[in-house]
Every structure is written in C-alpha cells, then in structure tokens.
C-alpha cells in the first residue's frame, strides 16, 4: 500500500507539501496541488482518516442527520452538501435512525448538519461547542456554535396567498402540515400576514391539517370540498399535498384552475409534470444544501460564529392558477 512518503517522492515535493496539497490547502500552488493529486492517483494512494485524526484531533467526517430518506427534496440537498464538504476534503456520513441523539452525543465527527425536527433543541444545546459546530436546516435556534440555514418560509407563504388574491380568488382554503414543524409555522405566518393586509380573518378561512404527504393532501381536500363546496382556491404547504389535492379536485368533477386554483410549495421535480402543471413556491435545494455545508466549514475553521441564513424563495407561475381579476395584466 502506498504511503504519503511515496506520493511526495513521486511528485517531487516534501511530505509536508504533499500533505497540505492533498488537504486542499491554499498555502500550496494550484500546479503543485495538481501534481501531488495526480501522483496520488497513479499510486492508488488513499489518505488515512484515522491517522489524520490522531495528529490533528480531526476525523475529517461531517455528519448529516435526516428524518428519513424518502421524499423528493433530499437528493438535491444531499448532493449539494456532499459537493460542499468534499471540496474541503471531508467525508459525509448520513444518518437516519432512532439512535441519532446518541450518535450526536458521541461526536465521532467534526461537525453536524441537522435536517431532522425530531432531534430536540436540548440535544443540540448539549452537543454544540467550538470543537463541534452544528448547522440546522429545519428550524431557527440561537446558540453560539450553531448556524441556521433555512428557506424564507414566511416570505413564501405570503407570496403564495398574495398571488391568489391578486388573481381575484376570494374563497380560499389551506392545507397545512403538523404544528410541530418549523417550516409549517413559518409558512402559516406568511399566510396570516397576507390575509391581514387584505382584511381577511385567518380564523374564518377553512384549514385542513395534513402531514406533508400526497395521501393526506387528497383526503384533506376531499374533506374541504364536502364542508366548503364553494371554495375557489387552495394553498397547500408543500407540493406533495398539492398533488394529492389536485387528484381530489379532479375526482370531484371540478376543473383546475377554472373551478379551483391550486398552489404548492417547494417546486419538487414532479411539480412541472402534473396536469395541469403546478404553480408553486420554489426553494433552491442545491443552494440550501451548499450553504449549509459552507457555513459548517466556516464554523469548523473558526471563521465565524452561529448565525441565521435565509434562502430566498421564488414564485413559479405555471397552470394551476389562472383566473384573472379585472385590472390584472
């Protein structure tokens, strides 16, 4: 098995230079780094993460803690996190188990990225430290060694409702998620803001509670149609529920958007392929994941302290909102 000394000899540099080059240090020129990496490739050299960890008190591992692996959002987010941490020579370890709390407490990594609302704030408070920074992507929390990288959900909720009102829809309904979800609470806050500006009482608007899945979107929409058959627009707090709602509307014999408009949130890949194509609020998942990685690396390198970073959202106009009111061009 090739050693670092072998790589240094092959590249014609010192062992120290070879080590820095393989770690991507800016102290080493691009040309030298390229020469060292090519030498390592020719020799099939694999750096020992354990050896590096013993010398520098680092594991060169980043933990990513998810609620689960299903769902259309994780792929882009994980790829972007991987791209971010691997550019700094870190490995990404993904965990989605019932023992996430224990794995976090053991801290066999240099930092963690959290996208799992079931990991409580008290656990994050206990594990975070200058030597073990954390980035959360599913809530905001003020701790010195924790950064929060979240979508601007309040703006997104506001944007969706404002879009419906501007198009002349008056009998709105909402399908929201669970009350324990930060994203749900923030999006509802945006809804309330838009309604308040329009002189509409949120308490007077029909609301159904789902769990961010297509099946509950469908069942919630059926319930709304039975109780409020004259609603003319529904805002679902994620695209999966919106797709389920669209199926329920079609089964009732109503047309989208002629009878009922639908708007979702997230802009998952399937949103542009529904019939009609779903109008939604886009969250740039690759930017979200990449900024989570970048912010964690900055904390690990002691280049900053915990902060809140909001990812901007965008209204994607497609085909499920289309009734144009007088004066709208």
UniProtKB/TrEMBL annotation:
<dbReference type="GO" id="GO:0003700">
    <property type="term" value="F:DNA-binding transcription factor activity"/>
</dbReference>
<dbReference type="GO" id="GO:0000976">
    <property type="term" value="F:transcription cis-regulatory region binding"/>
</dbReference>
<keyword id="KW-0678">Repressor</keyword>
<keyword id="KW-0804">Transcription</keyword>
<dbReference type="InterPro" id="IPR046335">
    <property type="entry name" value="LacI/GalR-like_sensor"/>
</dbReference>
<protein>
    <recommendedName>
        <fullName>HTH lacI-type domain-containing protein</fullName>
    </recommendedName>
</protein>
<keyword id="KW-0238">DNA-binding</keyword>
<dbReference type="InterPro" id="IPR000843">
    <property type="entry name" value="HTH_LacI"/>
</dbReference>
<dbReference type="Pfam" id="PF00356">
    <property type="entry name" value="LacI"/>
</dbReference>
<dbReference type="Pfam" id="PF13377">
    <property type="entry name" value="Peripla_BP_3"/>
</dbReference>
<dbReference type="InterPro" id="IPR028082">
    <property type="entry name" value="Peripla_BP_I"/>
</dbReference>
<feature type="domain" description="HTH lacI-type">
    <location>
        <begin position="2"/>
        <end position="56"/>
    </location>
</feature>
<keyword id="KW-0805">Transcription regulation</keyword>
<dbReference type="InterPro" id="IPR010982">
    <property type="entry name" value="Lambda_DNA-bd_dom_sf"/>
</dbReference>
């Amino acid at each position: 098995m090739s050693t670092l000394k072998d790589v240094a000899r092959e590249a014609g540099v010192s062992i120290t230079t070879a080590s820095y080059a393989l770690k991507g240090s800016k102290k080493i020129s691009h040309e030298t780094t390229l020469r060292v990496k090519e030498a390592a490739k020719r020799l099939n050299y694999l750096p020992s993460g354990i050896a590096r960890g013993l010398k520098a008190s680092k594991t060169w591992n980043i933990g990513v803690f998810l609620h689960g692996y299903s769902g259309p959002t994780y792929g882009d987010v994980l790829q972007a996190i991987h791209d971010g941490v691997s550019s700094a020579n870190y490995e990404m370890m993904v965990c989605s188990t019932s023992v996430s709390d224990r794995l976090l407490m053991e801290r066999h990594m240099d930092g963690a990225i959290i996208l799992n609302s079931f990991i409580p704030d008290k656990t994050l408070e206990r594990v975070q430290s200058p030597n073990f920074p954390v980035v959360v992507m599913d809530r905001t929390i003020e701790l010195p060694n924790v950064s929060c990288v979240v979508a601007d959900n309040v703006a997104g909720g506001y944007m969706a409702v404002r879009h419906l009102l501007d198009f002349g829809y008056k009998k709105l309904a909402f399908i929201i998620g669970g009350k324990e979800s930060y994203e749900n609470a923030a999006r509802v806050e945006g809804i309330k803001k838009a309604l308040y500006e329009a002189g509409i009482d949120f308490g007077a608007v029909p609301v159904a509670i789902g769990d961010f899945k297509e099946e509950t979107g469908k069942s919630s929409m059926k319930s709304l149609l039975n109780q409020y058959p004259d609603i003319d627009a529904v805002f679902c707090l994620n695209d999966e529920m919106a797709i389920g709602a669209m199926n329920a509307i079609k089964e009732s014999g109503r047309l989208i958007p002629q009878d009922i408009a639908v708007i979702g949130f997230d802009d998952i890949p399937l949103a542009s392929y529904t019939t009609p194509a779903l109008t939604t609020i886009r969250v740039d998942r690759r930017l979200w994941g990449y900024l989570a990685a970048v912010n964690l690396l900055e904390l690990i390198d002691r280049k900053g302290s915990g902060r809140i970073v909001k990812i901007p959202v965008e209204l994607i106009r497609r085909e499920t909102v289309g009734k144009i009111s007088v004066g709208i061009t």
